[in-house]
Design goal:
This protein has 1 helix and 15 strands. It has 223 residues and is an all-beta fold. A hairpin with a 2-residue loop joins strand 1 and strand 2. It is elongated. The termini are far apart.
Length: 223
């Protein structure tokens, strides 16, 4: 109901990207960025194709959305709701509660997950999706993560603990920046390492990677 460039859409919308159930006000001003607000429900919607991100797959969600733009450069949107599953970088994440903003390829907000391979009690901060590598600047209380299953590592690493992260990289080989871990426990091929505090830093100097690792029991560097 409404006008061609300012209307409310209530019901089911079917497109070649998937099906959306919505109760949303759409504003489509001439030669300006589209704006929207209201309730949104999707099942297997191919959001990666819509946003032009090859690593991002389909998404199923239920929540309130308000924002503008339909591509990564223009997108400025707030979402508060539940994501039952979303595919990214070859893995399908499940059971995510999300409240935050996505603006200029950056998500900022609060997140909780209960995925079988990623259980997070609380995560606050930002994740940058622009560029060839992901960038993280956040604090998190991780109850369990399996890095191999999430395709962040080719070896079997399982972890729980509290994190302070400020780095770029889609996997451990491309890690650049710093990661502080405390009250943590790491399991590698059934071998468990517990530590009160650990700090890992990685930098490129004259084309070479420099790694430093510090904890209560260990002080190491690698070039």
């Amino acid at each position: 109901t409404g006008f061609l460039n300012d209307f409310v859409a209530f019901g089911t919308i079917q497109t070649n990207l998937g099906t959306v159930s919505a109760d949303i006000n759409m504003k489509l001003p001439e030669k300006q960025v589209p704006a929207y607000s209201g309730k949104l429900v999707t099942q297997g919607f191919r959001i990666g194709q819509l946003l032009g991100d090859a690593k991002l797959g389909s998404i199923s969600l239920n929540g309130q959305v308000a924002g503008k733009g339909f591509n990564l450069k223009e997108l400025d949107s707030h979402f508060n709701g539940y994501v039952s599953d979303v595919a990214y970088n070859g893995y399908r994440y499940k059971d995510i509660s999300l409240n935050g903003n996505f603006r200029k390829s950056v998500f900022t907000g609060h997140l909780q997950t209960n995925d079988p391979n990623l259980r997070i009690a609380a995560l606050d901060g930002s994740i940058h999706f622009a560029g060839p590598e992901l960038a993280f600047n956040l604090d998190a209380d991780v109850q369990y993560i399996n890095l191999k299953q999430l395709k962040f590592s080719q070896e079997d690493f399982q972890f729980n603990g509290k994190l302070n992260l400020n780095f770029t990289g889609n996997d451990i080989d491309h890690f650049l920046g710093s990661a502080r871990i405390y009250e943590g426990s790491l399991i590698h091929d059934s071998t468990r390492l517990a530590f009160d505090s650990l700090r890992l830093e990685s930098a490129l100097i004259d084309g070479n990677k420099h790694l430093t690792l510090q904890s209560n029991e260990l002080d190491a560097s690698l070039k």
